[in-house]
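In this supplementary section we document a worked example of the pipeline. Step one takes a protein sequence of length 223 as its only input; no multiple sequence alignment statistics are reported here. Step two produces a three-dimensional model, which step three serialises into structure tokens for compact storage. The input and output of this example are shown verbatim.
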Amino acid sequence: MADELDSYKIPIDGRWSLEDLYRFPRTFEQVYFAFEAIAPAESEEVEERITRTFAAFPWRGGYSAVDFYNQLKSATPPQRRPQISRINYSSPGIIELLLNADLAIQIGTVVTSIAGSIGICNKVYNSIHSDLQKRKLLRIEVERKKVELSREELRLVEDAGETMAKMIGLQSARALHERTKDPLKSLKILLSVYRRLRLLAEFKLKGKANLRSVNELIHDKEL
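The serialised model returned by step three reads:
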């Protein structure tokens, strides 16, 4: 039920297009479900659905990623999905959601961190992405390629996974590996989540939507 969720307010400002109104909520929702799915589920039934979702997709890009996030949403019980409480479009305005506020604050903290060093973060992402592309590891079916990785490629994939995990606020990629059973698939998911966090960071940098970090929320309470 909605009363089991917390209120979370996102300050908005500036001029929004219809595309913004579509991209921001959809991207936030995808990141939200991805972060929630990496943690252990509260029931065996949900855990089973999420595990199947992580194992099901070959991660060749395009619709594979879209289907992945849609399935994560389907695996999340309806009463735990973010819901809109109100939207006030003005300058400034607000989007108020009902959701797991701790998880939203975690996402806001990661978005703030990426926004504060977006040049460095993009350089790291581009380096890893370029290396995978050069080695033709991006669009090959993960399950098939898993058995073909050389020792050098495996080490590169594992190291890149740890780098990306830390960049998006995870302690390590271990929890994700437990879901996927394959470091290459884990890395592709981490790269995908980063691209979505980067988009949310761009909204923050443009002053359109401020997903606030834990420090910003503490500061607001002190004022």
